[in-house]
Amino acid sequence: MIELTAGQTRAAPARAPEPLARVQDFLNSVHVERGTDELADPAAATRFLAGEMGPDTRRRLDDGWVISKSDVDRLLGVRAALRALIRVGTGETERAEAARTLSETAQSVPVALRVDPDGRLQVVPAGTDCDWFIGQLMTSIQQAQGAGTWERLKICRADACAWVFYDTSRNHSATWCAMGVCGNRQKVTRHRERRRQSRSDEPLTGQD
Ligand SMILES: [Zn+2]
Question: Cα(6) to centroid of ligand 1, in Å?
């Protein structure tokens, strides 16, 4: 296994443009490699949302939103559904299940239409507390889908990583969160497999 050196941090993978970046951060509240979850319980979720989900979310928490166990369950459900939908290799049944969860969630949060000074319509969250927060995630995703950026949000193909990254490659073909870390790790694994099969000594620097 390749160890992360000082120069290789988790901050390296590209972030999506706002407001999609907030959704990306939300989806990365589970850290597969470390085996930790920022939404493990109401206290942890409160810390995460207050610290990472922007000033509007923080203000709502300051104004009295107390995150409950059922809020946490809703957040986990939305996160799991969204992660399943953007993962390459999600099976058909799981994908349909995720879409259904997302659809039910979308119907449960109130949204409103707003018109900006140029006459452009915007869908905005209109609920309170957890409804507002999930509504904000949903409307951000809707904006990103309209802008064509949603398709670039991907889950790293290395199962041990599964980090959500923003694909900045020109042809939208990236599969690793950071080639230097996960791509190499995968390369080493494949190299070892090939070596076991052929007993030859291929150099590690070869192109895959
Ligand atoms: Zn990765």
Answer: 16
Q: How far is the CA of 162 from the centre of ligand 1 (A)?
A: 6
Residue 8 lies in a domain: no
Residues 176 and 183 sit within 8 Å (Cβ to Cβ): yes
Any domain includes 141: yes
* pTM for this entry: 0.82
Domain that holds residue 131: 20-167
CA 181 – ligand 1 centroid, Å: 7
The answer to whether the beta carbons of residues 37 and 44 sit under 8 Å apart is: yes
**pLDDT digit string (tens) for 155-200?**
998 888 999 999 998 888 888 887 667 867 666 666 666 666 665 5
Give the chain's mean pLDDT.
87
Number of domains composing the chain: 2
The amino acid present at 94, given as its one-letter code, is: E
Ligand 1: distance of its center to the CA of 188 in Å? 14
